Amino acid sequence: MKTFEEKWTAWLDGQLSGKELAEFESSLPDLAAAEAEKRDAQKLGSFLKQQLGAQILSNAEFFSHQLHERIARDTQDRHRPTSTWWTIPRLVWSGATALALFLITTVVLMTQHQPGEQSEYLTQILNSRVDPAANPNAAVYIFESKNDNKVTVLWTEGLQSLPADYAAK
Amino acid sequence: MQTETTPAQADVSELDLVRQCQAGQTEAFDQLVTRYRTRVFAMIYNMVHNEQDAWDLAQESFIKAWKSIGRFRGKSSFYTWIYRIVMNVTIDWLRKRQIKAGGAEFDDAIQLKEIDPASKTVPRADPLPHQRMEQHEIRARINHAISQLSPEHRAVILMKEIEEMQYHEIAQSLGCSIGTVMSRLFYARKKLQNSLRDVYENV
Q1: Which residues, 6 or more positions from A53, have their beta carbon under 8 angstroms from its beta carbon?
Q2: Cα distance between the two ends of chain B
Q3: Cα A66 to Cα A78: distance, rounded to the nearest angstrom
């Protein structure tokens, strides 16, 4: 559905024909006034064409020359290799190398770490088994002092005797 | 549409030139520029009313055309395509300038309300005697009247009346519907009739 403005413009530019033209013209309250308006708009069009159509580009060759220079400069810039040090592959390789170094260092440090006497002792206690039938209320606690270096406290409760295998090592 | 070509250049079809441009041949683009530079410049000049600005905007338009010519698929004519770039560049520039200037130059919202679509246009001022009207005065009046239009209204009236483009070509160039083009044309004409009737009635 065309609006009035669209129909008017089409009518003014001679784009309406047949039934559409007849319908539009019959819908106008004053066809003679509309025709005068049409002539007026056409006069405006001719006037604008006459006054504005003659605009020329002075120094047209210089215009093209300047444009050519800009395009050449732009093309040169685009083809110049970019030499940023941190390219993506370099970044990936650097990351992988850093990770590998970290892992190697960690493994070396872990293998070099000798478990002390204390660790062996604790392992022994934890591995020892208390017979629940003989010692129904038995409990064994181990505390490791954070303040005093290398001090471990073994707290036993409800034991009639220490397990036979205790302190075998 | 008239173009600025030599007979030798006219032998080469526009599509061939575009294909050569897409292959990176700047000489082919030079030929396209030669064909359209005057019309593009005139179109922009009629919208911005300043020679230096029109020159710069025309340069910018052609640079953008060169950079994006790889995306031209030939679905529309080359001049419709380049006009779309020209219009985008020019309308953007006008909008930015309007914002910088505080937005007082044109205001469709206000002006459209003042126009009764069925009204008869009347002279805005007493007509000046033809003998006393100098060419630059006429031009100044036209420029002033056009500067009161929004960039979109300027574009449609210039493309229709000066470039004699069809509605669908204008619609393609502006990226809007044919109905929008016709509607804008209606209001642009009404406004210019109101502003310039005393001038064109006496020339």
Answers
A1: B42, B162
A2: 27
A3: 18
How many domains is chain A built from? 2
- If you average pLDDT over residues A70-75, what whole number do you get? 85
Determine whether the interchain pair A57/B162 forms a contact, defined as Cβ–Cβ distance below 8 Å. Answer: no
Share of chain B above pLDDT 90, in %: 64
Nearest to B182 among A9, A29, A40 (CB): A9
Which of A117, A114, A108, A107 is CA-nearest to residue A150?
Answer: A117
Q: Is the confidence at residue B181, as pLDDT, over 60?
A: yes
* Residues B162 and B85 reside in one and the same domain: no
Q: Specify whether B93 is located in the same domain as B159.
A: no
Decide which of A119 and B94 is more confident: B94
Domain that holds residue A131: 117-157
Q: Which of B3, B63, B64, B183 to mutate to test the interface with A (most CBs of A within 10 A)?
A: B183
- Where in the sequence is the domain holding B22, given as residue range(s)? 1-105
> Looking at the domain assignment, is residue A12 inside a domain?
yes
From the candidates B51, B115, B200, B202, which should be mutated to test the interface with A, based on the most A CB atoms within 10 A? B200
pLDDT value at position A99? 95
Clarify whether residues B92 and B124 are in a common domain.
Answer: no
Contact: A45, B161; criterion CB under 8 Å: yes
Is the reported ipTM for this assembly greater than 0.85? no
